[in-house]
Design goal:
heterodimer, A: mainly alpha, MetI-like fold, two-stranded antiparallel sheet, B: alpha+beta, Rossmann fold, OB fold (Dihydrolipoamide Acetyltransferase, E2P), 5-stranded antiparallel sheet, about 30% strand, elongated
């Protein structure tokens, strides 16, 4: 029971005897973030440090023996192994093909589906559904569809008099096929981001521009596109990173072939680490990939900053 | 410059009739204010005039052209939006010159027209700033400037002052009035603030549920409202509407009177025994120059009375005397009965 003070008497409110309010808030804050912090340290920061260490070691997974070799793994990748540059080239081709195609398609879909009309939710669902579809199921279905003469795609082409290539067996066409099927699978995610951004643009801007005589194209080019800039940057960065990290799609559809035509960096790292058990070399490749992706992200951010 | 004619204009959204047959004539150079409560259709009507909303039925004429099917940009109108709608990625100069640019006006002329509008609105020092770097009042001026550079025949204002604080609103109101005087264009102005309507308008259009309740000068609407709705909507504090029996003490009423209206400023306080009717002060709101009294009269209704100077406190018994010349009479439907019908 607390004593009720007499009127006009100032008393000190209750407090813990040895903690200030600020200290108590700090402890509570640390307690709140500690589960996430623990997860971050164990599952992200720890492995990241380990990869740096492994990349400086000669470590065959089967021998269980790691030897420090300094930058030898990096030297091998960058200057001795011709496969590495082929893989980098393939990854760049994949990204250069995928990123603009994905973004252009996502924007076009978003422009069509950002307004309210009957059936809009159905169409949004149709285009977003592949994003949440199992990558394995997606790849297997497309593998069937893209088979040589018996494949559905080639049968469709044959119906209009075009003889389609053997999509997944010819190096150049295999790359086109994995890019296009990957775009169709992932475009829904960027579409949703663009729809959100378009819906956040006040309709009065368009109304004002229309009153001033702007055509649809002028409204898009001079008003909508600049205002989508921050969203476009985010989409470009995450799509570029995603394209360099692509693994499951390649593994399931082409296995890196034919003739290493679709052998991209993430799949190559997997091969080195888990098929050839050269963990040290695979870790060095992973670090190189990290630097490439980081570099591209910084360049994109810098370009955007310069434009604004 | 242009006149504006609306004939039986209708707008329907799905199954909802938003504008239900509006007839209106706006003379060349007139400042007309659409006023009414939220949802009455005033902004929709403005957007129909601009072309941002299509016309379901009726005829819309700007000057001598029927413009029902004319694109917004070809109607010769410019609009100032409630949100200002300034493009955030363009500076003031480019915002003001946007319309000229898309219409492919030569850069030299574009610069000249932006410069003239900026000078008119005292925006010269702000031309290189972005909207985010401007205050609310400055943004409003830029939005007006953007409308001016296009040299429109008709200016449309959609609640342009509603995002400003009270002091700035008064200031911008006078700037818009001065602008109208200087330019002489036809202006249509939408607001739900009847003080704005009264101070700016040559002619006020009172709207309710998509229909015009009354059109007239501010004085006409204040002194001779056509019905109870207009009587209570125009004027602040709003007009007292009393049942005819409760207001019998104010004098003889025309035949058919169901309600009597009297504005708070047209009632005077006297001693209880000297009043035409009497009552008790319930609330006394002191506002500085005057006080607003809520008085419960003997028949049970509450009457508002505006009193200059000292006012009695709550619970004081008072008498009320009405200025006979300012009494308004309404029939059971709420339609005004004119004084000529009062016999004596």
């Amino acid at each position: 029971m607390t004593m009720k003070p007499a009127t006009g008497v100032t008393v000190r409110g209750e407090r813990a005897p040895w903690l200030t309010l600020k200290m108590r808030e700090a402890i509570e804050a640390w307690l709140f973030i500690s589960p996430t912090l623990a997860g971050f340290l164990i599952f992200f920061a720890g492995p990241l440090v380990a990869v740096v260490w492994y990349s400086l070691s000669e470590w065959n997974l089967l021998s269980q023996q790691a030897t420090f070799v300094g930058l030898a793994n990096y030297n091998d990748a960058l200057f001795r192994n011709p496969d590495f540059w082929l893989v980098v080239r393939n990854s760049i081709v994949f990204a250069v093909g995928l990123v603009p195609l994905n973004m252009a398609l996502a924007l076009a879909l978003a422009l069509a589906l950002s307004r309210r009309f009957r059936g809009v939710v159905f169409f949004r669902t149709v285009f977003f559904a592949p994003v949440v579809t199992s990558a394995v199921a997606w790849a297997i279905v497309w593998k069937f569809l893209l088979q040589g003469e018996a494949g559905f795609v080639n049968q469709l082409l044959a119906a209009i008099g075009i003889q389609g290539p053997n999509w997944l067996r010819e190096p150049d066409w295999a790359m086109v096929a994995v890019i296009v099927t990957r775009v169709i699978k992932m475009v829904g995610l960027n579409m949703i981001l663009y729809i959100a951004a378009l819906q956040a643009i006040p309709r009065d801007y368009e109304a004002a521009a229309r009153l001033e005589g702007a055509s649809n194209w002028q409204i898009f080019r001079m008003i909508i596109w600049p205002l989508l800039g921050p969203t476009t940057l985010v989409i470009m960065v995450i799509t570029t990173i995603g394209s360099f990290k692509v693994f499951d799609h390649i593994y399931l559809m082409t296995g890196g072939g034919p003739e290493n035509g679709t052998l991209v960096l993430a799949f190559y790292i997997y091969q080195q680490g888990f098929q050839f058990f050269d963990v040290g070399y695979a870790s060095a490749l992973a670090m190189i990939m990290f630097v490439i992706v980081m570099g591209l992200t910084v360049v994109q951010l810098a370009l955007r900053r310069r434009d604004t | 410059m242009s006149s504006l004619t609306l004939r039986n204009l209708k707008k329907r959204f799905g199954r909802v009739d938003v504008i239900r047959g509006v007839d209106l004539d706006v003379a060349d150079g007139e400042f007309v204010v659409f006023v009414g409560p939220s949802g009455c259709g005033k902004s929709t009507l403005l957007r129909m005039i601009s072309g941002l909303e299509d016309v379901t039925a009726g005829e819309l004429r700007i000057g001598d052209r029927i413009v029902n099917e004319v694109q917004p940009a070809r109607r010769g109108v410019a609009m100032v939006f409630q949100s200002y709608a300034l493009y955030p990625h363009l500076n003031v100069r480019d915002n003001m010159g946007f319309g000229l640019k898309v219409r492919k006006v030569a850069p030299a002329e574009r610069r000249q027209r932006v410069k003239e509008a900026a000078a008119l609105l005292k925006l010269e020092a702000l031309l290189d700033r972005f909207p985010r770097e401007l205050s609310g009042g400055q943004r409003q001026r830029v939005a007006i400037g953007r409308a001016i550079v296009g040299h429109p025949d008709v200016f449309l204002f959609d609640e342009p002052l509603s995002n400003l604080d009270a002091e700035l609103r008064v200031h911008m109101r006078s700037e818009i009035a001065a602008l109208h005087k200087r330019l002489g264009n036809t202006m249509i102005y939408v607001t739900h603030d009847q003080v704005e309507a009264m101070t700016l308008a040559d002619k006020i259009v009172v709207l309710r549920d998509g229909c015009i309740e009354q059109v007239g000068s501010p004085r006409e609407l204040y002194e001779r409202p056509d019905n109870v709705f207009v009587a209570q909507f125009i004027g602040s504090p709003k007009m007292n509407i009393l049942p005819a029996a409760s207001a019998a003490g104010f004098g003889q009423q025309p035949t058919g009177t169901a309600h009597v209206g009297i504005r708070p400023e047209h009632l005077s306080l006297v001693a209880p025994e000297k009043g035409q009717i009497s009552g008790k002060v319930v609330i006394s709101e002191y506002t500085g120059a005057s006080s607003l009294l809520h008085i419960t009269i003997d028949s049970g209704e509450t009457c508002l009375v505006l009193v200059d100077g000292d006012a009695p406190e709550a619970d004081v018994e008072v008498g009320l005397v009405a200025d006979f010349g300012n009494l308004h009479y309404f029939d059971a439907d709420g339609t005004a009965l004119r004084k000529s019908q009062v016999s004596g």
